[in-house]
Queue: 2 jobs
Job 1
Amino acid sequence: MEISMTSTATDSATSFSSLGLSEPLMEALDALEFTQMTQTQQACLPDVLAGADVAVQAKTGSGKTLAFGLALLSKIDVEAKNPQSLIMCPTRELAEQVAEQIRLLAKRMSNLKVVSLVGGMPMGPQIISLRYGANVVVGTPGRIMDHIGKRTLSLKKVNCFVLDEADRMLDMGFEDEMRVVMHHLSRTSSAATRQTLLFSATFPDQIKSITDQYQRDAKIIKVDDGQSAP
Ligand code: ADP
Ligand code: MG
């Protein structure tokens, strides 16, 4: 594969090459033909990659998946026995889409496994996938909670936790499930290494309360003009 390393004075600030990403991630971006960051990615990636707890308000289609995908994959040790990333999404469809996008980004990271835990599917195959080793787990709140309850999902090595479409999860009535998962995370994984990222199109008080309670000195980034990805 040919790797294009062109970078001009005009696009260098908005180019992914300014972020110091690993080679496998840069190669994956190249294969996807993503060269320029969206405005949302420019606004949050420096903080997100530095390991900060960030809450991002940006509209749909602004490239949020890639923002947290790059962050969590930058921190993965593929040899680790337990999941290091946990992403919670409101619906089965969104969880599957996020899992797919992360798999594409992780294409050059050998042996990295992304497992989706969504409702409406039998538990058995999900339990087997977890047992065979999952680096990244993407799921819906109820099903993630079910696996925690059955002790088939360990959160003790989670170093990146993502609440995707947080406002929609609340609208769908998942507040209790979200809080149960976050409470369990705060009890089992190490606060010193855990990064919590929240993405939402809107910022009602309920989101502010989750941010205050579960994020460390959250930096809130609002992208008013959340330009869509090309
Ligand atoms: P959001 O979660 O903000 O609604 P997505 O993460 O689903 O948006 O991204 C929307 C689309 O834009 C996806 O098809 C994604 O692959 C694409 N995309 C994301 N970032 C870029 C980029 N920097 N360049 C080109 N396309 C991108
Ligand atoms: Mg999204």
Job 2
Amino acid sequence: MEVVILADPAAVGSHTAELVARRAAETPDMVLGIATGSSPLGTYRELARLHAQGDVTFDGVRCFALDEYVGLPERHPASYALVVERELTTPLGLDPANVRTPDGSAADIQQACLDYEHALAASGGVDLQILGIGTNGHIGFNEPTSSLASRTRVKALSQQTRMDNARFFAKGEDVPTHCITQGLGTIMEAREIVLVAQGEAKAAAVAAAIEGPVSSMCPASLLQFHPRTRIVLDEAAASGL
Ligand code: GLP
């Protein structure tokens, strides 16, 4: 695990964007694992800036999102499908046919989970996975107590996560109760991982992930077993180390 501590969120965004841009230049058809939430937004905006300047192209890049809410109305602005479209597909000029999110409105949700695993495997697997971290140490929506070997599946969201994410919805009760998320076992198969975290609110989760025991109580701690993971933090997120 390589830990990079930078002065502020802007530095986290440019450092991580440069890493992604470098990998896209090395492997133009790379499979990029994408996270939603606010943590990687600085990275995505910096990538959009580099793309607008003509410094990087994502024409052949294939993307798989980590997770999606279950049961939101189609094209709900907080659905991760729409967040991905807004923050990545459009500004980075990705081919929409190359961008996938789990299908949270599928009639057969278990089948949708299996289909997602099959699509990931058929792509050849994730070359670079971008992750955020929840205040409770979750990655994707793998909440504390998630099986360390888990695969893409339906999960109930914890009360804390529903509260953390209420800011994206008009009313607290609009936050879905369930989601589809890649499992911890699925995420660990990525060949390279970069986790970004900013702000004091993430300090305790970051410290548990990096310095605590590997435990399902802090799902991100499993990354200690990953051979090629970089954790990019601003000083506030690193303050518990
Ligand atoms: C969200 C997402 C995760 C994200 C994490 C942190 O709910 N499911 O993929 O990394 O929780 O969110 P944020 O970056 O908004 O703090």
